[in-house]
Amino acid sequence: MKLSTSFTLLAAIIPYALAQSPEWGQCGGIGWTGATTCVSGTVCTVMNAYYSQCLPGSASSAPATTRPVSTPSGPTSTSVPAPAGTGLNALAKAAGKLYFGTATDNGELSDAAYTAILDNNKEFGQITPANSMKWDATEPTRGTFTFSGGDQIANLAKANGQLLRGHNCVWYNQLPSWVSNGQFTAADLTTVIQNHCSTLVSHYKGQVYSWDVVNEPFNDDGTWRQDVFFNVLGTTYPAIALKAARAADPNAKLYINDYNIEQSGAKATAMLNLVKQLIADGVPIDGVGFQCHFIVGEVPGTFQTVLEQFTALGLEVAITELDIRTTTPASQSALAQQQKDYQSVVQACMNVDGCVGITVWDFTDKYSWVPSTFSGQGAACPWDQNLVKKLAYNGIVAALTS
Ligand code: G3I
């Protein structure tokens, strides 16, 4: 074959090859300029206005726009158009929620490509500092407070027109050693907690929508975590912290925040009993945060029911640290399952009036906490390492527009 003939053939083949999206690949949606047909054995299916996807099924080569919307089983079947140009926060607000937000951290703020997304309040209407308001960062030595890191995030929220979640006042982790190893009497430690919560919450008075006043008080079996606070003060320490926080900023919503309370069981029951007791005792408590650090394919089916048990007490609830991890490198099928999982978690919040908002624990795999904690796992966020939206994003959109 002559060289010129080869080029002619190649030129004929390449556009055809580019016109075929792979299984699980994108094949249409607002703003999509790539292939609109799918490889044999898959069918281009409209998932929502932003996203059509090649799902396993009878082969076709027609573009998504001319194809009837298929209705696969499970949560990805929702196909509700969203207005062009909207982001997750805009969609959440249009659906009656207060915000869609993300955690962020100070070290990430020099990444211009990252902040271009973070600062977009159509995408994120709320931010949470992942580390810089914690005890080790704010009161590293007794009575000496440093707010520079927290202030940077608070100022960013203000500049971006985003709500701010304070995280956190009292937690067993990331404590300076003067607290974790302190030999306190009950009276001493009460003063230490009051001073820390009061100074921290006062500093951000008027700037914070909600505070995680108490973080992770329970073990997974529903018993109290044996930390310095419980060991010295027993079950009384949450009330000490909550009262100090209320006095410091009467308008901030005061939360207790935990993980593995999303499914019915001993830990959720322990949290329910704690907030019932606090309410009965007249202790200020406004909400419970469900962290939602999940695993692909293992989102608890009872989540909505649990949320409703808490809102039935007159509390608000929020998804505060959502991410859904998998084994890395993530397979296409895991990412497709992750899309369904994100959709079902967000849908649970959508179905509960008292669920005020959803926060992801950073939006990109580039800065996720997961790989450094769970070896061989990650890919947990709705944007990938390269700040490109994953299928998970479409799952969130589908729920927000349901
Ligand atoms: O600041 C030091 C730095 O000086 C040092 O050079 C570096 C070396 O490892 O460590 C830095 O501290 C790290 C800190 O994040 C700030 O980046 C810690 O090692 C690291 O353990 C810490 O991880 C944080 C983790 O909480 C600690 O438990 C994660 O970033 C943060 O995302 C994570 O957030 C928690 C929530 O607060 C509560 N719920 C669970 C969630 C995930 O673990």
TrEMBL record:
Signal peptide: 1-19
GO molecular function: cellulose binding; endo-1,4-beta-xylanase activity
Top-level taxon of the source organism: Eukaryota
Reactions catalysed: Endohydrolysis of (1->4)-beta-D-xylosidic linkages in xylans
Enzyme class: hydrolase
UniProtKB keywords: Carbohydrate metabolism, Glycosidase, Hydrolase, Polysaccharide degradation, Secreted, Signal, Xylan degradation
One cellular-component annotation, GO: extracellular region
Annotated ranges, domain GH10: 85-399
Pathway in which the depicted protein is active: Glycan degradation; xylan degradation
Cellular compartment(s): Secreted
Residues of the active site: E321 (nucleophile)
Keyword Amino-acid biosynthesis: no
E.C. numbers: 3.2.1.8
Database matches in SUPFAM superfamilies: (Trans)glycosidases (SSF51445), Cellulose-binding domain (SSF57180)
Name of the protein: Beta-xylanase
